[in-house]
Amino acid sequence: MRLMGPITSGAAVGGNGVATANADSGVVSGRIIAVGLEYLDSPPAGTTDVVVATKGGRGPAQTILSIANAATNGWFYPRVGTVSTSGAALLYAAGGTAVGEPLAVADALNVKIDQANAGDGVNVWLLME
């Protein structure tokens, strides 16, 4: 396991409740076990959105984490559904629970904060395998 970060959105620019910022990382390769968010300054919890996504320069783009209307630091464990080798159906564990796996990435990431206040930002930490 390795911890990467922070990947910083930069300081949001714009009016209160509508300020935005985004920044790109270098190429990140591996499986994302967890994503840590650390909000900077004091973004409004009622409107602030954060999206962490691949850029799509090395394959199809994918959203890794999307958090809406929040501003509480924490760790998140995004998972993607698994499919059969034919790609036809989700695989299920006993009891009918869908099987999820950590997201595999090999691309640059974009970190975006939106609907924040001027000067707000977010740091993103990745626990990678």
- For the CA atoms, what is the radius of gyration? 16 Å
Q: CA-to-CA gap between the ends?
A: 5 Å
Query: How many helical stretches?
Result: 0
Q: Which band does the percent of strand residues land in?
A: over 45%
Kindly report the average pLDDT value.
92
Strand count, sense and barrel status of the largest sheet are: 7 strands, antiparallel
Given as residue ranges, the uncertain stretches (5+ residues, pLDDT < 50) are: none
**How many runs of DSSP E, i.e. beta strands?**
9
What gross morphology would you assign? Answer: globular
Q: What is the helix content?
A: under 10%
Provide the succession of SSEs.
Answer: EEEEEEEEE
Which structural class best describes the helix and strand composition? mainly beta
Provide an overview of this structure.
The chain is an all-beta fold and 129 residues long. It has strands at 2-8, 19-40, 49-54, 63-67, 74-76, 80-81, 100-101, 103-116, 121-128. The strands form two sheets. Strands 1, 2, 3, 4, 5, 8 and 9 form a seven-stranded antiparallel sheet that branches. The radius of gyration is 16 Å and the shape is globular.
